Amino acid sequence: MEVSRNAILRISREVWANAELGLAERRSSAIHLRELEAAGFRVASRGTSGVPTAFVAEWSQGSGGASIGFMPEYDALPGLGNAAEPRRAPGPTGAEVGHGCGHNMLGAGCTGGAIALKRMMEGAGTPGTVRVYGCAAEETEGAKVYMARDHLFERDDAVLAWHPAPVAGAGLARLNAVDKAKVIFRGRAAHAGFAPWEGRSALKAAEMFGIGVQMMREHVLPTARIHYIYEHAGVAPNVVPDFAQIWIVLRDLDRPKVEALTRWVRQIAAGAAAATQTEAEFVHFYGTHDLLPNEPLAQLMHRHLSAVPLEWTEEEQAFARACQREIGVREAGMATRPLPFLRDISAGGATDVGEVSYQAPVGVFAWPTLPLGIGLHTWPVTACGGMSIGDKASLNTARILAAASFDLMADPALREATRADFLRRRGDRSYTPALPDDRRRPLGLPAFMTRTGDDEVVAGMEGA
Q: Is residue 319 classed exposed, middle or buried when 0-12, 13-18 and 19+ CB atoms within 10 A define those classes?
């Protein structure tokens, strides 16, 4: 297993050192593909489903057998760059971008688990297919949603992943469905001092929209989550703003509830425009389903993670306690035992893994990569991910994923139980993509990721 170990550590360390934001993870996705191709995987797709940094790699042996998918992620977050030190300090690429959700480890564990599974199958002569889905941009407009719209996961018997956490655990966890939208108001500019009556303020429309959302809050279900920011709100106070833009995120327990919230917010935007004599544009650009748990897979994951010791050196525990001291929480260090199997828990967050869970049975688990009492999307997660705590997480999760997936490959009865639980929980709800029909690629895709060179050719001809 030494070859797999080296590949796993290369992925985790190199992606950490080259942190990239979602939809721009060119080096990070290339690192995964390099290791997969070296391990004998065939790259079946690049730029998968319209997302330039997404991919699918696969390997098959024999005829028939099961098909197991893995979901590595590799996007980082803004403002969370940090050195592998227990204090705020710029990382290899500064402080602007860093793996504050641990996707360098998440990706290494998933891709490493697939490579290890391949070697186990070769040794045992087990027939089957291993697929690795390069899941770009989970933090923003996750590629899994676009892949699911293309029905890529429906061919798999199970799709597996894990996520960094302060604890080790698995169970029947639910996460919310989500919609994301941009609300754009266009008005008419004017001099705010000389002739404000000539203008129509897009900013006032945006403010009225915000007030409307606050009035809405009293009457939504307790499970709903509504949060937004003003992305554009004018350029100077003495100019009546003719443009304003809001980014709003809506969450609830399932798609029907989220879709009802989205319809209501769309009406609020129209009302704010009517009241201010401006024009409103509502751009619903992204959505996901809630996460369907799968009990046989959750039990399988829990059994395997419980067999892997949570062992830390005194130096690692001291590093964790120093991070806790800097943050101002109890200096409890790293978790040393897994949680009992979790039943029927729900959280307010969302993930594009939910989209996959409506197409195939999904198994996920949590593994410690950060100190107790510290949340994700913080600098200590980046710091721990760049040193031995992160190395252990990448290696141990690959080990857990490989062992659990080999059980699935070798046990038809387990696969049947997994499929039965999936069908029971999904019920008679047919899968309908959460993406709008007209959304063919992510809204936030950087221009440099889509340029073909044709525009440069035309530009060179303009003066001819």
A: buried
H helices within 23-102, ranges in order?
A: 26-38
Whether residue 1 has pLDDT greater than 60: no
Share the mean pLDDT of the chain. Answer: 94
Q: CA-CA distance, 429 to 357, in Å (whole number)?
A: 12
| Residue among 6, 153, 54, 108 at smallest CA distance from 445 | 54
Rounded CA-CA distance 85/81 in Å is: 11
The tokens of 327 are what?
Answer: 């943050």
Model pLDDT for residues 372-422, shown as the tens digit of each residue: 999 999 999 999 999 999 999 999 999 999 999 999 999 999 999 999 999
Token pair 């073909």: residue? 452
Percent of the chain clearing pLDDT 90 (strictly above): 90
Q: Which residues contact 30 (CB under 8 A, 6 or more apart)?
A: none
Instruction: Answer whether 69's CB lies under 8 Å from 153's CB.
Output: yes
Task: Give the integer Cα–Cα distance in Å for 459 and 461.
Answer: 5
Q: Which of 51, 73, 254, 24 is nearest to 146 (CA)?
A: 51
CA–CA separation, 272 and 268 (whole Å): 6
Structure-token match 């995120």, residue found: 249
Residues 76, 19 contacting (CB under 8 angstroms): yes
Q: Are the C-beta atoms of residues 114 and 130 closer than 8 Å to each other? A: yes
In whole angstroms, give the CA distance from residue 378 to residue 318: 18
What element of type H or E holds 65? none
Residue 70's identity, in one-letter code, is F
